[in-house]
Amino acid sequence: MRNSLLNPKLSYLQYGIREIVLIADQIKQRNPSFTMIPENIGDPIIKGWTTPQYVKDLLCDAARNKDMVWGYVHSRGLEAARAWVAQDANRCYPKANLDVDDIVFANGLGAAIGLTYVALPEGVRVIQPSPSYPTHASLEAFASGKESISYNCDPKHGWQVDLEHLESQIQKHPEITGILVVNPNNPTGAVYSRETLERIVELALKYNLFILADEIYYRLVYHGKVHHHMSAVVDGRVPLIVMRGISKDIPWPGSRCGWIEFHNAKMNADFAAYAEGIKKRMLLEVGATAMPQHLVPYLYEHPDFQPHLEATNRKLEENSTAIAGILNSIPGVTCNPANGAFYITSVFEPGVLHDRQTLPIANADVRAFIEQEVRKPGIAPDKRFAYYLLANTGIVVTPASDFFSPHYGFRVTTLDRDPKKLQFTYATLKAAIEAYLAS
Ligand SMILES: Cc1ncc(COP(=O)(O)O)c(C=O)c1O
To answer: Which residue minimizes the CA distance to atom 1 of ligand 1?
Structure first.
């Protein structure tokens, strides 16, 4: 090429949650009878959930009878959908006072996350939680061309935010201008207390920062926990971006429909200009997926939504307790039951993993392939474990190191619908971990 096409920033784009599926595909090529048990992806549909009938009925009715659903929508989103989102945000925090101009729809929250970081000026950073959902950490690093900067969440304290570490990182890195809070959290399942969120807001005030609150799981909370909306905690004091979508609580991840809410934008000219930049960026994309936006005003207001949500949270609570019980009974492994979202991240005790551990792999081709993969330089010990687990049992987990965690471990989803399948999967996982650690 006349100029090199190699972009060094591409190395920041990592999404281990799905990258491990490529390893599973390679195993399948070598052993066609190999079956995967996907505990890695937070997709309710592949774990046996069905989109509620009323959603399907709304969709069919719109597709058959409303020609408008087949067209483009406003670049920032259908006005009726933005009006509903603004109304919902005002319900969460009555003084929010949002209107349609404070909302931008995107093709899933994943796309909205990309828009948000790409619009930041050069050198301006948003500190990420660790462990971190890779779309945030990777896209923030990609946009800035530098490794992500993170604050620790502590597995010994229910994965709560280490506020001292957060403040020390803010002091150490003057380029930090925003704090990302994912609550309820992916990958840890933690739900933050009002006091923790208040302390984060105090840090934002002290150091003149904005806050980015990813609340896509805010309705999925159980074990008696309460979700505190960041907008209410901020209470008009700090510029804030709230991120939500319909992938998780409806559940309709294939809709690719998420949105950003700008709160308190007018209090700071810089932040207001940044928000306008994100809107402009969306203008160039023409607009996001129309069909789900036409349904958004009805999805959460339908009388069947609340019973669906309550049944979902009951199941997630039951699964969280069952899975955490099994994982915590394994010597060398600890985990916190999820209180929100649908993930549990377990950690291996320091020192229990080493690079000679293995699990039996009957197929010689598969064994040779896995041995070659785990010999690659720099492979994290928990990824090594995840590869052997995959080849031995078919169970796909995401290594904790793929969430940029300093604690080796793995994330699983708590989405299994079928209790028998869940018991089988986690009994198999437990036996495999015990065998791997003892090998
Ligand atoms: C914390 C978090 N934010 C954003 C997303 C992206 O959601 P979407 O399906 O709307 O792109 C996910 C998906 O797993 C998530 O866990």
So the answer is: 186
- CATH number for region 11-50+306-438: 3.90.1150.10
The residue type found at 318 is E
111 Cβ contact list (under 8 Å, min separation 6): 256, 258, 288
- pLDDT tens digits, 302-352: 999 999 999 999 999 999 999 999 999 999 999 999 999 999 999 999 999
Q: What is the model's pTM?
A: 0.96
Q: Which atom of ligand 1 is nearest to the CA of 111?
A: 11
Distance CA 178, CA 268 (A): 14
Tell me the one-letter amino acid at 432.
A
Determine the atom of ligand 1 nearest the C-alpha atom of 133. Answer: 1
Q: Looking at ligand 1, which residue's alpha carbon is closest to its atom 16?
A: 186
Question: Residue ranges per domain, the chain?
Answer: 11-50+306-438, 53-299
Residues in contact with ligand 1 (CB, 6 Å cut-off) = 42, 108-110, 133, 135, 182, 186, 214, 216, 245, 247, 253, 258
**pLDDT score of 206:** 98
pLDDT tens digits, one per residue of 41-61: 888 888 889 899 999 999 999
The SS3 call for residue 414 is coil
CATH class, domain 53-299, is alpha beta
Ligand 1 atom having least distance to the Cα of 112: 11
* pLDDT computed for residue 232 by the predictor: 97
Considering only CA atoms, give the Rg of the chain.
22
Of 88, 110, 81, which is closest to residue 15 (Cα–Cα)? Answer: 110
Is the Cα torsion angle 132, 135, 138, 144 positive or negative in sign? negative
Mean pLDDT to the nearest integer, 12-31: 87
